[in-house]
Amino acid sequence: MRLALYLTIILGIAQAQFACPTFSCGKIKNQNGEKKCVEVNDKGDHFTTQHCDKDEFCSASLWKNPSQATADAYCYKRHEMKSINFTVPGDYCNNTVECFGKQGEVDCIKNKCTLTTDSPYCDLGPNKHQMCNVNQYCMNKVCVPAKKEGQICRGRYECEFGLQCYAKGPLFSKFKCYPPHKLGDDYEFDTSMMTNGYDNFLGYDSVCESHYSVINEDYPTRRICRKGDRSEEQDTNKLRQREGIGGFCNYYTYNDPSAPGSPVKVKDYSKCGFNRDSSAWCSLRRGDNSFTKVLEQIKKIDWNDINCHVYSNIYGCDEFSKIDKDLMKKFEKLMKQTDNSFGSPVVANNDKCVAETITSSFWQGDSPNSADYLSLTLASVLVVVLYMT
């Protein structure tokens, strides 16, 4: 009996030591002109969060994970940034000064940056291609038609909207314009002429059918398409929470050096986030059903049907309205959640004001309490956590 009691106490202490800190909405009593947006309690295990004014931002938004939350955070004035000479042809505008180009050659017409000349002079160093019209690029100070699928290219800027410029293995001899998601598992490609584009929707991973690739360690400019890592447990109905980190979150990787391309089991553990309770969560992975189901919808997009500038902000291009923006936002969130530098545990159970301050770069104004959030969370973000009891 006494031994059982001692074990209970020891386990309780160990659990408390590894409990995740909690983050929730509340009222902070600021004094002496302070403007705290996050306040930590004396124990350092709970953070009260409240809004900043509209013209301010919370310094806690710079935190990447709870380990960086070691002190109070404050509101600071947000520097107003005006979009002057920045918006490319075809994108939304309110005033001509916003549009990229020379005075007299560009105008904001019906809220769209529009070139007023058929032959603009394009020689402004690295930004010269932004002076050309949709599906054009600058060559020898003249705007010329962009390359179509299968044509030789020297960079994404030479290709029509939605295409990337890379060279296929095994020869890697010719860089050509290709649409996304065309290479299968184990195919290799050279990224020397590639850049992440369209708010990173069409980055390196977009070359692969799986939307996942790894670097060839022997040739750093080359990448190999692989199946995405896949969690061992896919049944979200068996989701369990536990006080603190350390729960098992095993998964399978297809990039183990001992068996590249074959599934190899890897041990992983649950992690803390900026969440309402002290539970820890498993990470969402690129091979999980929740990601692959949305990816299949993304693959159905006909990029040839979208007439935007190669340097367009996709949400600012009218033509992009042909695509379900809610679908794109969901995919954008899933890419962040499956990025090891970010991770889904960070946003697994955010309170509303936390989503508007600490993790605002992820939510971008969307509410974590919305129906869309719940469907995303319960079906995907909160990947099942199996714990050994």
Automatic annotation (TrEMBL):
Signal peptide segment: 1-16
Source domain of life: Eukaryota
Keyword entries, A-Z: Signal
Protein name according to UniProt: Uncharacterized protein
Native organism: Euplotes crassus
